[in-house]
Design a protein that fits this description.
The complex is a heterodimer of chains A (345) and B (267). With 345 residues, chain A is an all-alpha fold. Chain A has one domain: ABC transporter involved in vitamin B12 uptake, BtuC. Chain A contains 16 helices and 2 strands. Chain B has 2 domains: 176 residues, 3-Layer(aba) Sandwich (Rossmann fold); 79 residues, no CATH class. Chain B is 40% helix and 22% strand. Chain B is built from 11 helices and 10 strands. In chain B, a hairpin with a 2-residue loop joins strand 9 and strand 10. Chain B is globular, with a radius of gyration of 20 Å. The chains are: A mainly alpha (345), B alpha/beta (267). The interface between A and B is medium-sized, with 30 and 39 residues.
């Protein structure tokens, strides 16, 4: 018995699929036992988690800093909004998500080719420009992209098979917000399984080698440009999918949703959780989604006015980031890993 | 391999200028199959430049580089690994946040075949290949006496061990030509003697080009020596012959003359 379990666990794919299955069960339990409002929050956590997962691969595994992932999310979100705008003629949701991912991936490949020629702070600068320019482009094309108001997103009807299956398993009817939360979390789980596989494969090893020492990696026969572009493409594909889920969750794709703060929030989530760790990215996304709510609630209970309580949230988030950077520079998961390694040796 | 007996690494009439200063001037050398060639010379003689040209990091202004009758000049540094040219760097260049075992597995990348999608989908052939590469890397670490450090990160290890890891990473690709840049730097006498034995052993499996300024090591392991001074090839031949060459003696002992000269010209 134990040997079979051990053998299963030692297979990378089987381990990732097992964790994905457990994750899916946990998601179903949480979404079924929480309110529609909380379901909406979990959908936010899902898209932040998908984008953070992609960013942690780029920054943590490959050492490229992107300050422009919000812009790639915008591309995914606008693509989704355009695809779903006609309720009758819209493609199936899965197709819309995939198209949004691919469109973002193609644009990401173009940016990645340019970024691979740059180093360190210059990539950050170039992607920063992107983060600022893309919302501007959306504003400029008033007719197709809706200008400042943006595009409202038509969430497709819940497919019958999905509603029936969900009812059969949970004995609950599926609301639209719950459906979107499921779509977001299933997307997240699939993304994380693929990213985890990549990270444990030759590709992930190549990325880490390039991050740690590019000259030595080149000597070992690794094509630096190819490795960097590949990491960028994978990362932007995640951002595109995240943007698509965002469009469904927020039901709006507007320039104000993709300001520089989104890109910076993603980066801080990744740093807080621990660079290069998918678990860390998920923890970061959870902090990003729920910490402001919790803090505002505590502030209100303590007798602050609405405004004061709302202002407390960014303050606490900022302080948390400062504390983590000072006390645990490897991030939450990174620090836990170091402690575990130390205890073992 | 049959072709190993007929072909070799050849650098012909290499010249490199840095802003009008000739770092290398018409330098030629040849590494015969299973030969250990040493490149020596005083500081600033152009050894590192020569090494960088051999590695593909510097494009020479003139001259040709051939390996098994194939022109290398237009190739990028990463393409040399695929042709069976392994290299170690003076600064070791280990991947500090990867374990020793992972460091060595990276060196074996030229034997890896699994592509992006096989890795992303966790296909069996990708997993099996990873397993094989790890075993290969482990065997080499074992051969170099560093297997016990496989799970550790390089910064936590003593310098001589890190040196072995860097060598294992170059050897795991099973190169036919190994380029070593100052392998003896920072090693104690015992470690250096061990390194000498190791390099002699390697010459049964591959050709070795050694850039080194530690004379004892070069004299004891090399079959053939090329001496550089001020970017020029001032002597070449077997160790015993080079040792007695008046030009070499002048280059090495000429230091004192160098020190004298400014004093007289300044006045």
């Amino acid at each position: 018995m134990t040997t079979f379990a051990q053998r299963l666990w030692s297979s990378t794919l089987a381990r990732h699929l097992l964790l994905a299955g457990l994750g899916l069960v946990a998601v179903a339990l949480v979404l079924e036992s929480t309110s529609a409002f909380r379901n909406g929050q979990f959908a936010v956590m899902a898209y932040m988690g998908i984008a953070a997962g992609g960013l942690t691969v780029l920054t943590g595994l490959n050492g490229q800093l992107s300050l422009g992932h919000g812009a790639f999310m915008a591309i995914g979100a606008y693509t989704t909004a355009l695809l779903l705008s006609d309720r009758d003629g819209a493609p199936p949701l899965l197709v819309a998500l995939l198209v949004a991912t691919v469109v973002t991936l193609v644009i990401g490949a173009g940016v990645g080719v340019a970024a691979a020629r740059l180093h360190g702070p210059y990539i950050a600068g170039a992607t920063l420009a992107l983060a600022i320019a893309v919302p501007g482009i959306a504003r400029y094309f008033q007719d197709t992209l809706g200008g400042e108001q943006g595009l409202t997103v038509v969430v497709p009807d819940i497919p019958g098979w999905f509603a029936d299956t969900a009812y059969f398993i949970t004995a609950n009817d599926v609301s639209t917000s719950k459906y979107v939360a499921y779509v977001g979390w299933i997307s997240l789980i699939v993304t994380y399984v693929l990213l985890a596989n990549l990270s444990r494969s030759r590709v992930g090893r190549t990325w880490r080698a390039v991050r740690d020492n590019d000259v030595a990696a080149e000597i070992a026969g690794i094509n630096l440009g190819r490795a960097r572009v590949l990491a960028f493409v994978v990362s932007t594909a995640c951002a595109g999918l995240a943007g698509a889920v965002l469009a469904l969750a927020v039901r709006l794709a507007a320039p104000s949703g993709f300001m520089l703060t989104l890109s910076l929030a993603l980066l801080s989530a990744v740093v807080l959780g621990g660079l290069g760790s998918l678990t860390g990215a998920l923890i970061g996304a959870a902090l990003l989604t729920f910490l402001p709510q919790v803090v505002t609630g505590v502030g209100l209970d303590a007798g602050l006015s609405d405004l004061q309580a709302a202002e407390l949230a960014p303050l606490v988030y900022g302080l948390t980031t400062i504390l983590v950077v000072i006390l645990a520079p490897a991030g939450i998961v990174g620090t836990a890993r170091i402690a575990w390694r130390r205890r073992r040796s | 391999m049959a072709d190993r007996t007929v072909s070799a690494f050849r650098m012909s009439a290499i010249s490199v200028n840095f802003g009008g200063i000739a770092a290398l001037d018409d330098v030629s050398l040849e590494v015969a199959p299973n030969q250990v060639l040493g490149v020596i010379g005083p500081n600033g003689a152009g050894k590192t430049t020569l090494f960088n040209v051999a590695c593909g990091f510097i494009q020479p202004d003139a001259g040709a580089l051939t390996w098994r009758d194939r022109e290398l000049r237009r190739l990028k540094p990463h393409q040399l690994a695929g042709l069976g040219i392994g290299r170690t760097l003076q600064g070791l260049g280990l991947f500090d946040r990867m374990t020793v075992l992972e460091n060595v597995v990276v060196g074996a990348d030229r034997h890896a075949r699994a592509g992006f999608f096989a890795g992303m989908l966790g296909l069996r052939r990708s997993a099996r290949e990873e397993h094989d590469l790890r075993e290969r890397a482990m065997a080499l670490l074992d051969e170099l006496g560093a297997a016990t450090y496989a799970g550790q990160l390089p910064p936590s290890l003593p310098y001589p061990v890190r040196k072995r890891v860097a060598l294992a990473r170059a050897l795991v690709s099973e190169p036919d030509l190994l380029l070593l840049d100052e392998p003896a730097a920072g090693l104690s006498g015992d470690d250096m003697a061990e390194l000498g034995e190791l390099i002699k052993g390697l010459s049964q499996r591959m050709s070795v080009m050694l850039v080194e300024h530690h004379m004892d090591l070069v004299m004891s392991v090399c079959d053939h020596i090329v001496v550089l001074d001020f970017g020029k090839n001032i002597a070449s031949g077997p160790p015993a012959q080079v040792k007695e060459d008046p030009a070499v003696l002048a280059a090495y002992l000429g230091d004192e003359v160098e020190h004298d000269r400014p004093a007289t010209t300044r006045s």
